[in-house]
C-alpha cells in the first residue's frame, strides 16, 4: 500500500471508540434502567423513546454496530487499495483478530452451564452461536462480520476493476431482493428482524463502508471541509431521532427494510468526512485513539460488566432519579470505566499477542483500476 493511501489511524480509532461507547451506553440504559425499576427488560414493550435528539442517540445506540460494520468495509478497502488480496492470509489475519478473545469468553460462558459441554456445543462456539446471556448477547455481530470477511476479497476486486458502480448495482440488487423476500413471506405479518440483523441486511453497511473508502481515496481533497464532519453527524443524529420516533427498532414496518441502507449511508458519510479532515489532535485525541484500539475488548466484555452490576449492585443503584437517568449515570461513571479498564487488560493479555502474528495480506502486481465497468480485468506487469 502506498504511503499516500494509508488510513489516518487516529480518526479511525476515534470512530471505533465512539461506536463502542454508544453500544455500552445503549445497553446500560436499557438493562440498568429496568433493574432500577425492579424488573427485567423486555425489548418490545420497554424500549426507550425521547424527543431529545441527544437522548435518542443513546437510546438507539445499537447503531454503534452499524458504525463498526461501515468501518470494517472502509478500513479493509483502504488497506487493500490497488493491490490483490491474498485470500488465505486475509482470513487467517481475521481469525487471529476475532477468535482469541471471543473463544476465551465463549468457553468461560459454557463453563457456567451445569451440563458438560457436548460436541454440538463446541460447534456452536466455533460458529458464534453460543452461549446465551450474559456472555453471548453480542456474538451475533461476529457471525455477520465473519461473513463479510469471506466475501471481501471478491468485493474488493469488483470495486478495483469495475469501479463503484459495481457495488452500487449490487447494493440495489440486494435491496430489491430483500423487499421481494419480505413480500413473498407466507407469514401473515412478516418480520423484518432477520432481514435487518443478519447478513441480508447488514451487507449494505459493509458495502457502503467500501464505497466511503473509494470516495476518500479518490476525492479526499473535496471532503476536506471543516463543516462536513459536524454536518454529517447532525444528519446521522437526525435520522436516528426519526427512527426512534416511529419505534423503528421494535416495529415490523416495511420501512425498516430500507433502514440498514439509510443507517449505513449516514455513517459512511461520517466516516469519509471525519477521516478526510483528520479530526482534533492533542491529549484528547490520543486518549480516544487508545480507547478505539481496545474497542473490540470493550464490545465483548461490557455485557458481562453490566450483568454483574445488575445482579450485585442492586442495593446502591440510584433511586432518587428517573430510572433512565440513574442508569445513564451508573453506566457512564461506573460500567464504562470498569469495562475500559478490563478491556486494556484483555487486549494486552489476549488480543495483542495474536495480533502480532498477523502477516501482510496484500501483495503481488498492482491491480489496474478500470474506468469503464465492462472493460476486461487486467493486471499491471502481465
UniProtKB/TrEMBL annotation:
Transmembrane regions: 57-78, 99-116, 136-155, 167-187, 193-215, 227-245, 257-276, 296-317, 323-350
Domain Acyltransferase per the UniProt entry, residue ranges: 12-345
The protein's Enzyme Commission number: 2.3.-.-
Entry's Gene Ontology molecular function annotations: acyltransferase activity
Keywords, ordered alphabetically: Acyltransferase, Membrane, Transferase, Transmembrane, Transmembrane helix
Protein name: Acyltransferase
Organism: Streptomyces ficellus
Amino acid at each position: 500500500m502506498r504511503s499516500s493511501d494509508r488510513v489516518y489511524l487516529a480518526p479511525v480509532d476515534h470512530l471505533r471508540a465512539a461506536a463502542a461507547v454508544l453500544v455500552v451506553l445503549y445497553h446500560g440504559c436499557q438493562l440498568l434502567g429496568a433493574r432500577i425499576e425492579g424488573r427485567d427488560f423486555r425489548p418490545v414493550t420497554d424500549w426507550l423513546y425521547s424527543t431529545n435528539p441527544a437522548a435518542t442517540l443513546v437510546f438507539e445506540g445499537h447503531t454503534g454496530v452499524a458504525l463498526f460494520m461501515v468501518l470494517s468495509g472502509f478500513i479493509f478497502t483502504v488497506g487493500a487499495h490497488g493491490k490483490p488480496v491474498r485470500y488465505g492470509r486475509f482470513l487467517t489475519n481475521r481469525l487471529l483478530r476475532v477468535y482469541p478473545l471471543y473463544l476465551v469468553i465463549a468457553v468461560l460462558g459454557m463453563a457456567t452451564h451445569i451440563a458438560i459441554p457436548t460436541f454440538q456445543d463446541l460447534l456452536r462456539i466455533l460458529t458464534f452461536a453460543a452461549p446465551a446471556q450474559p456472555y453471548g448477547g453480542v456474538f451475533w455481530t461476529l457471525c455477520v462480520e465473519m461473513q463479510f470477511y469471506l466475501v471481501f476479497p471478491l468485493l474488493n476486486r469488483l470495486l478495483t476493476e469495475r469501479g463503484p458502480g459495481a457495488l452500487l448495482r449490487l447494493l440495489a440488487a440486494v435491496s430489491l431482493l430483500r423487499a421481494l423476500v419480505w413480500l413473498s413471506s407466507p407469514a401473515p405479518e412478516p418480520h423484518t428482524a432477520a432481514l435487518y440483523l443478519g447478513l441480508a441486511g447488514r451487507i449494505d453497511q459493509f458495502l457502503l463502508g467500501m464505497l466511503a473508502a473509494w470516495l476518500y481515496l479518490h476525492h479526499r481533497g473535496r471532503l476536506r471541509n471543516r463543516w462536513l464532519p459536524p454536518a454529517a453527524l447532525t444528519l446521522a443524529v437526525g435520522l436516528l431521532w426519526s427512527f426512534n420516533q416511529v419505534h423503528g427498532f421494535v416495529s415490523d414496518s416495511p420501512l425498516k427494510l430500507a433502514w440498514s441502507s439509510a443507517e449505513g449511508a449516514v455513517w459512511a458519510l461520517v466516516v469519509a468526512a471525519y477521516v478526510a479532515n483528520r479530526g482534533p489532535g492533542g491529549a484528547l485525541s490520543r486518549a480516544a485513539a487508545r480507547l478505539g484500539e481496545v474497542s473490540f475488548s470493550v464490545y465483548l466484555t461490557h455485557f458481562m460488566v453490566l450483568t454483574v452490576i445488575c445482579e450485585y449492585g442492586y442495593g446502591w443503584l440510584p433511586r432518587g432519579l428517573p430510572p433512565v437517568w440513574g442508569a445513564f449515570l451508573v453506566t457512564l461513571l461506573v460500567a464504562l470505566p470498569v469495562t475500559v479498564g478490563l478491556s486494556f487488560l484483555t487486549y494486552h493479555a489476549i488480543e495483542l499477542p495474536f495480533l502480532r502474528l498477523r502477516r501482510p495480506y496484500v501483495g503481488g502486481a498492482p491491480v489496474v483500476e478500470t474506468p469503464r465497468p465492462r472493460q476486461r480485468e487486467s493486471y499491471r506487469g502481465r
